[in-house]
């Protein structure tokens, strides 16, 4: 029987989702736990890769297993075999035609930033640190330009091999909390949420970096338009570090989003 599971993980100590030769991946740890739970080698497929250091609140995977364990009890059984930084949140049977990767319709990522003159150790593991105030209104205006179907070549890191760099962003939102005066965040947190039909290599981290540059006054709306039109990576903002990025949820069209926002 095929199962669909939602998995959460803290990515700091992993080389990413996918198995690699240069270190321990989330996939490796989860497959080891599934194998011990079911007593036979068990592989799993995720909705997509997350890079080294990136987290997930609602990664979706599928796996095949012949087990008497009820589907809703599988998370309890598997979690006893997992390290504390990985957890299966839910599990349910699905048709054999379901594929966590190829059946996915939308994914939502959130990039988290904190604004402070000094480094805050309790936020550092899951947020990027920005030491200067950010103009939230400017960030929101630029985020609106990201929405829609565009060629996101200028928002792709080098090293990727894809047939097309055209993607659709359904939502690009900027939320902020803290000391906000006249639309400017002096101290506090910023959450950049992006929903799309797919993402290029480091695309969300580059979008986040571009919006942060807009908040710092280093980029304007016209610069975003130009970056989208010309496809020149140097016209967009820098790639922000991985610790601020979290895969929040994946949607498949047959039900609500898997995961939590």
From TrEMBL:
<dbReference type="GO" id="GO:0003723">
    <property type="term" value="F:RNA binding"/>
</dbReference>
<feature type="domain" description="Pseudouridine synthase I TruA alpha/beta">
    <location>
        <begin position="5"/>
        <end position="102"/>
    </location>
</feature>
<dbReference type="InterPro" id="IPR001406">
    <property type="entry name" value="PsdUridine_synth_TruA"/>
</dbReference>
<dbReference type="InterPro" id="IPR020103">
    <property type="entry name" value="PsdUridine_synth_cat_dom_sf"/>
</dbReference>
<feature type="binding site">
    <location>
        <position position="109"/>
    </location>
    <ligand>
        <name>substrate</name>
    </ligand>
</feature>
<dbReference type="GO" id="GO:0031119">
    <property type="term" value="P:tRNA pseudouridine synthesis"/>
</dbReference>
<dbReference type="InterPro" id="IPR020094">
    <property type="entry name" value="TruA/RsuA/RluB/E/F_N"/>
</dbReference>
<dbReference type="InterPro" id="IPR020095">
    <property type="entry name" value="PsdUridine_synth_TruA_C"/>
</dbReference>
<comment type="function">
    <text>Formation of pseudouridine at positions 38, 39 and 40 in the anticodon stem and loop of transfer RNAs.</text>
</comment>
<comment type="subunit">
    <text>Homodimer.</text>
</comment>
<protein>
    <recommendedName>
        <fullName>tRNA pseudouridine synthase A</fullName>
        <ecNumber>5.4.99.12</ecNumber>
    </recommendedName>
</protein>
<dbReference type="InterPro" id="IPR020097">
    <property type="entry name" value="PsdUridine_synth_TruA_a/b_dom"/>
</dbReference>
<dbReference type="Pfam" id="PF01416">
    <property type="entry name" value="PseudoU_synth_1"/>
</dbReference>
<dbReference type="GO" id="GO:0160147">
    <property type="term" value="F:tRNA pseudouridine(38-40) synthase activity"/>
</dbReference>
<keyword id="KW-0413">Isomerase</keyword>
<comment type="similarity">
    <text>Belongs to the tRNA pseudouridine synthase TruA family.</text>
</comment>
<feature type="domain" description="Pseudouridine synthase I TruA alpha/beta">
    <location>
        <begin position="143"/>
        <end position="252"/>
    </location>
</feature>
<keyword id="KW-0819">tRNA processing</keyword>
<feature type="active site" description="Nucleophile">
    <location>
        <position position="51"/>
    </location>
</feature>
């Amino acid at each position: 029987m095929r199962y669909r599971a939602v998995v959460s993980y803290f990515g700091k100590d992993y080389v990413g989702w996918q198995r690699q030769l240069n270190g321990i991946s989330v996939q490796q740890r989860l497959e080891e736990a599934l194998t011990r739970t079911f007593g036979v080698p068990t592989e799993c497929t995720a909705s997509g890769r997350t890079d080294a250091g990136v987290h997930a609140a609602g990664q979706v995977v599928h796996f095949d297993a012949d087990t008497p364990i009820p589907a809703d009890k599988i998370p309890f059984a598997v979690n006893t075999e997992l390290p504390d930084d990985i957890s299966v949140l839910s599990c349910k049977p699905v048709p054999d035609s379901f594929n966590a990767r190829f059946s996915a319709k939308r994914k939502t990522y959130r990039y988290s930033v904190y604004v402070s003159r000094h480094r805050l150790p309790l936020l550092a593991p899951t947020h990027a640190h920005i030491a200067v105030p950010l103009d939230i209104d400017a960030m929101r205006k630029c985020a609106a330009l990201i929405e829609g179907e565009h060629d996101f070549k200028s928002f792709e890191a080098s090293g990727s091999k894809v047939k097309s760099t055209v993607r659709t962003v359904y939502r690009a939102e900027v939320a902020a909390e803290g000391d906000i005066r006249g639309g400017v965040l002096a101290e506090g947190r910023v959450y950049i949420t992006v929903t799309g039909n797919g993402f290029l290599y480091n695309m969300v981290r580059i979008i986040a970096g571009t919006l942060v540059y807009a908040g710092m006054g280093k980029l304007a709306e016209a610069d975003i338009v130009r970056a989208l039109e010309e496809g020149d990576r140097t016209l967009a903002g820098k790639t922000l570090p991985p610790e601020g990025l979290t895969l929040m949820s994946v949607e498949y069209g047959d039900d609500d989003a898997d995961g939590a926002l």
